[in-house]
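Hey,
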Amino acid sequence: MDTTENKWAVILIGPPGSGKDTQAELLARELKFVEIKSSKIIEDKFKLADPNDVVINHEKELHASGQLNTREIVDAWIIERIEQVGATGVGLVGNGWPREIEEVEAEMKAVEKFYSKDSIKIVKITLSEEESVKRNSKRRVCEKNGHPIQKEEIDVCPEDGSAIIFRTDDTPETIKKRYQVYMTQTQPVIDFLSKKGYNVITINGEQPIEDVHRDILDKLW
């Protein structure tokens, strides 16, 4: 595949703790693509909303409990962002979407407005529930932009200078809930995309970060 025209769409899908954030960031940086991260879109919408917005406050409660946010709302937000990035003519790295069967057709239709089907790559990262809980229970991120932090010895985000924090929703109970939600609602998305003829690449997410990244790049080509 030739990346010189920057017309790829690489979409990462995997359970909590599978390394989607880190891998999406590495790919976007190396390929000079723009990352479209569903959790970042949701968090930005939450931050910008009126504190008295009843709809947004309900979405915040869903998010904190480990449930998926309302499909129609998030779907519209993601499609809006796909169209913004696609219109610039650069490649994109999708992170955390599509999440449900009901979202797939609308979101992939938006992607195909700007990227040909043979240039759309679905990267499925696998991870056990046990490893998901283990990883997420000690996950640290930058307070400002959610950048994942791997090094334990640093206290300031190297990306934006903000504080490094533990995610408040990363309790073992909530992580297990998110993992089960993934298996029942998001795993079928991958099967659907495969049946529709999209190129689905399976990656073992239990490897070290560098090995996962290398495997993704090897299989993209």
